[in-house]
Amino acid sequence: MDTILILTILVVICALAFDFINGFHDTANAIATSVSTRALSPRRAIILAAVMNFIGAITFTGVAKTITKDIVDPFALENGSLVILAALVAAIIWNLLTWYYGIPSSSSHALIGSIAGAAISAAGIGILNYSGFIKILQALLISPFIALAAGFIMMSLFGLIFKNTNLYKTNKGFRIFQIFTAALQSFTHGTNDAQKAMGIITMALIAANYHSSDDIPLWVRISAALAMGIGTSIGGWKIIKTVGGKIMKIRPVNGAAADLSSAIIIFGATLIHLPVSTTHVISSAIMGVGSAQRVKGVKWGVAGKIVLTWVITLPITALLAAVVYQLLNLIF
């Protein structure tokens, strides 16, 4: 086998590994509130999330096409397979580190930062597609603030609508409603996050001249969806504990408000073909919900650590990917 074919196979394997890790890393966010309020047992929540993630992943391809062509033009990329492999290795390393320490960092930031860093390391800063890259960065940066506001508004509305309702009955009703919101949250996660690995694989196929357009092959869609579904079934208990309990004390009404508002934001981004961080959106929605009830009820120290991780992910993964690219370049 020639070097390009070997690299392409390695890219496919690493992209599916990235989606698998994303499954137990990021999907934990989607079911964290329903598990913490005991609306669903961990086992049922994980099975529900795995199924809904798979369905969401094979339903849409718009975000995958954005990843394929809007950061770097794959048709103009020399050593494209090596660049993409370096990006995936760096993103996987960062995801595993943050998962190990239970920090809900963004797989989206990790992947996009890694692609940019590896590409710049290979061909200089001019290789970036500035308009597309800035558009993606804007979506990643603005979406948490929108989610914060949406969570605040959603919780305020719930507070007005149910202010005269018996607390026990309200919590019981919202616990049932959370089964629906957890399913919706997992579906929207699949429509956005699983797309990123699809885009990466398609980008590698184009760079290696095995594919001639930004259309996502069916086998890529199914394999990426399966990888994320299997990863989800493994679960991510460390992330669930952070998102589901360490930001604020979550009751069923809080969980439903956070799930519903964040699912709307994520699905809205999917419809306009923009990748967003489900981690950022869900965590921000929880902060917004907590602020609507009682600002002091939010553990802003934990929230601050999460925000710090968001800020440092892009530059660290870009630098890491640049180093990994140079190391791989020596090998290949």
TrEMBL record:
<feature type="transmembrane region" description="Helical">
    <location>
        <begin position="76"/>
        <end position="97"/>
    </location>
</feature>
<keyword id="KW-0812">Transmembrane</keyword>
<feature type="transmembrane region" description="Helical">
    <location>
        <begin position="45"/>
        <end position="64"/>
    </location>
</feature>
<keyword id="KW-0472">Membrane</keyword>
<feature type="transmembrane region" description="Helical">
    <location>
        <begin position="260"/>
        <end position="287"/>
    </location>
</feature>
<feature type="transmembrane region" description="Helical">
    <location>
        <begin position="307"/>
        <end position="328"/>
    </location>
</feature>
<dbReference type="InterPro" id="IPR001204">
    <property type="entry name" value="Phos_transporter"/>
</dbReference>
<feature type="transmembrane region" description="Helical">
    <location>
        <begin position="218"/>
        <end position="240"/>
    </location>
</feature>
<feature type="transmembrane region" description="Helical">
    <location>
        <begin position="109"/>
        <end position="128"/>
    </location>
</feature>
<protein>
    <submittedName>
        <fullName>Inorganic phosphate transporter</fullName>
    </submittedName>
</protein>
<dbReference type="Pfam" id="PF01384">
    <property type="entry name" value="PHO4"/>
</dbReference>
<feature type="transmembrane region" description="Helical">
    <location>
        <begin position="140"/>
        <end position="162"/>
    </location>
</feature>
<keyword id="KW-1133">Transmembrane helix</keyword>
<keyword id="KW-0813">Transport</keyword>
